[in-house]
Here is the input.
Amino acid sequence: MSLDAFATNLLQWHERHGRKDLPWQRDRTPYRVWVSEIMLQQTQVATVIPYYLRFMEAFPDVLALADAPVDRLLQHWSGLGYYARARNLYKAACEIRDRHGGRFPETFEDVVALPGIGRSTAGAIMALAHGERHAILDGNVKRVLARYHAVSGWPGDSAVSAALWQHAEQHTPSVMTAAYTQAIMDLGATVCTRTRPACFLCPVSSGCQAYELGCAADFPAKREKKARPLRQTHMALACCKGDVYLERRPPSGIWGGLWSLPEFDLEGQLLDWCSERLNAEPVTIERWTTLRHSFSHYHLDIKPVALRLDAVSGRVADGASGIWYNYETAPDFGLAAPVMKLIENLKDRQEGP
Ligand code: SF4
Here is the structure.
């Protein structure tokens, strides 16, 4: 397909104003593009850059990632959130090692079959790393196309998504596909932004229907908002001589595979757990202020309870499901953000006057 006016204008704009110095634009291997695309889902470029640089230093290629302990990967992901992305990245790396002989697959079908890689991410890898003609439809591109073609409805609806994919396919050129793909992502990130798009700077404003109608902000339509439910949990900070007891969370669900503080529905269960699991009675019990952590689908009120222990007979911890972690040392495993916050607080109280 030759270039339509949309692609032509976009490419000319990109030549002068596009972002060309992002770390994943250097040495564009499928592996490097893949990791960047996964990190950029739900996360801003500025946040991703330092994580990406550290990640590439630790895991320079797909085999380095597949052969690393999963805890090391989760440690590098700590703070980025949406941990299912990291777990899928690891699963896919192992699949590439075990089923593809350690080489990143080269066809769209093989790439899209890997865990955690959808049609848009596979398209971005094929277009950016191989220059092959594949359309993408990430959040930025959805916004640009919904506005340009005045596509109404929430993009999560299958009919709306199908219409947007059709536009994405139509505009994607068969030449300069990598530059075009980067250009449309950049336009969404820097000009056709979620709030207050800079239409006066936009290279495709002359054909944009939302601009012509003066209602860019109405596209794409938002999902009907449901109030997020509130859940509660008690977290035990069982401390003994500079160590705090941590448990590994189950592999799926929130913070899957990360180390966390033991959780209880009721405060009364904490003391039973302490005597049964740790074979100890706390010397002091402190109830800390509730900490709210919000997920996309619910709020979690965490009620921390610090249990100071003089001694723990046998220091029951098998290393697989439970560990004593010396909180003065940097963890070499992944911890969820609110758990990190509570451990920092523990440290501060320890060091206090
Ligand atoms: Fe987005 Fe405005 Fe450009 Fe239309 S004219 S694509 S709304 S920035």
Observations:
- The CA atoms of residues 59 and 68 lie 8 Å apart.
- The radius of gyration is 24 Å.
- Residues 144, 147-148, 191-192, 197, 199, 202, 204-205, 208, 210-211, 216 surround iron/sulfur cluster (CB under 6 Å).
